[in-house]
TrEMBL record:
The keyword Metal-binding does not apply. This is Putative zinc metalloprotease. The lineage of its organism: Bacteria, Pseudomonadati, Planctomycetota, Planctomycetia, Pirellulales. One of its GO terms (molecular function) is metalloendopeptidase activity. The chain crosses the membrane at residues 24-44, 141-163, 641-662, 674-696. Belongs to the peptidase M50B family. Pfam families: PDZ_6, Peptidase_M50. It is a multi-pass membrane protein. Its cofactor is Zn(2+). SUPFAM superfamilies: PDZ domain-like. It comes from Botrimarina hoheduenensis. One of its GO terms (biological process) is proteolysis. Keywords: Hydrolase, Membrane, Metalloprotease, Protease, Transmembrane, Transmembrane helix, Zinc.
Amino acid sequence: MDLVLSLLPLAALADLLNTAMVIGITALALGFVIFVHELGHFAVAKLCGVRCDKFFIGFDVGGYKISRKIGETEYGIGALPLGGYVKMFGQDDNVANLADQIEQSKQLEGSPHAKQITGPGGEKLWVDRRSYLAKSVPQRMAIISAGVIMNVIFAFLFAWIAYGVGVPETPAVVGSATPGGAAWEAGLRTGDRIIDLAGQPNPTYRQLQQAVILADLEAGLPMRVKRADGAVEDFVVKPNIVGLAPMIQVASSVTAEVAQRGDSTTRPFTPAEGTDFQAGDLITAINAEPVASYADIARLSRLNKSEPLTYTLQRVKGDTTESVSVSLPPNPMEGLGVVLTLGPVSAVQADSPAAAAGFKVGDQIVAIDGVRLAGFEEEEGALSDSDTEAALDPLTLDDRLAPAAAAQQSVAVTLQRDGETAPVTLSVIPRPVTWEGAPGGETPASIEALGVACSLSPTIAAVVPGSPAAREGIAPGAELLKATLVGFGKSEAKKTQAPQRISIELSGGKQAWPEVLWALQDQGPDFRVELQMATGEGDATRTVSLKPESVEDAYWSPRGIELEQLSETRRTDSWAERSKLAYNETLSQLSGIFRLLQKLGSQVSVKALGGPVMIAKVTGQSAFEGWGPLLMTLTMFSANLAVINFLPIPVLDGGHMLFLAYEGLTGKPANERIMVALHVAGLVFLLGLMAMVFTLDISRLLGIAL
């Protein structure tokens, strides 16, 4: 015990030192990107004979700085870490001081150390030969553009080094598609690997995300997919704007290798908890059927979720490999006994049984094989109490259709369709569901066996007899307003912590009930759900606290095994191959930021922008992950800095280039009043932009929605 206690402070100190090291690396890395930008200006200015008075990383606001003068230049680090600058003799970003410069020029007239130049009004001025203003337009253009050029060069170099070190990338393999999302609607599912994305072979998940954000929403994103069974199919996926930017709503995949999360390889309160799964174990078979990837695990788990599963594991111990078997019982599904009214079809999946049968968006399912669903009962053929939850719960409805899917027998689905006075009955052959779908935020309820997603009304259609909801006296007709998860994610090891509370809004058309049902699964004994509902008696509301219970004959396919994220390392010793990869990455980052700026405000919300806090957070996270990810983040940051600085905004390098181009064409600088007005406008714009991104950064840190 004494030994353990003495080691605890050392472990805490090690964590603290590790965090401090990452913070230090992050600061140095971001500072280096700014340094090379300013170095470009400094080096070319020196080559052109310009005297440089200051070279600073950060801004010495109020005189707060660490500096040292070497020769004619003061080198330093300013207190405000928002960039850097090189102060060149004769350069004044405040064009309002031009009159003073003209007055000073008179004192240099005829001096051998001075040179005559043309002023804004065509007048002749004398300036020091080592002044920035004494240099020709091409020389000043070279000085101004050198910072951006250095950023582009170093973006390439960062990527080039990264591909030599090794860059872990997540391949574009579908782990799950969110029901009703663009990928789900197109027909993508677990195990699909995108092998071509709009002409780009074997894209990474990161490249897929970037392509989706910048895609043409009308034309869609063409992709070629290799399915889990080896078949190759072509798709066109049309992204939807979800939140701040376009998405297709797919999650990346995991592997068949057991992972360790925290101190365990299994999740608490699941069949796998406490069993002999070890980090690094490779699942090679389930119930004697071979497993090659996560798609096989998902398929076998889904098809056999009501049966025990025996996992065959390949375990490496030193120089030996052994085979280990672990059996897990089924994982009962948890529920509250509340059944909501199934709403109209909101999406029909391409090439699905529903699409083949002629389902349309807006159709209202009212009965399956003559059994009317809760909320649509008639005296004849009304849904029995025992069938209510199994038929209507979004997480168990597929179970009702599973026997017909296995036998490939048709079922009759009765619909109410807009424009039709009589019900429409369609004959559909359900399909076996062999993949995983996961709700993400506001998600409709999916009937995967048919290939439709349906909205859910917050009105309670039925209450299962004997369920937690029934014991609390909840009655059909009440309208759910909010669900609060109390003790979500709480494990036995964290019993001393205050219960975590997560509130999910259900009113106002929000499609969040599937997320609530998903969250009920595999929770601890202290977990509760507080349901707030309108009772229908005026404005009266009622809140009840329910403890989920197992649903009879309903099972959850995951058994609680932690699996490693799918990752592939891109690394090469070939200089030519590294150069090609680095060139493509740099070009992708440069063009990506240009295209993002074009989409900003229309396709991509300005709320998606991030400032220094987000930049530091992303860089720090990549530093934790290793040198490869850190260098790739610096490639992105350096390319972004190059593009942003070269935008034609006065005060920025791009604005200076614009004025120099005018001077080169006309033979004289732009009019002083125009330059002053444009500089003021540019400064106001940049200050406003900085204030906005700072506000967005702080709101994210505090969890405040803007």
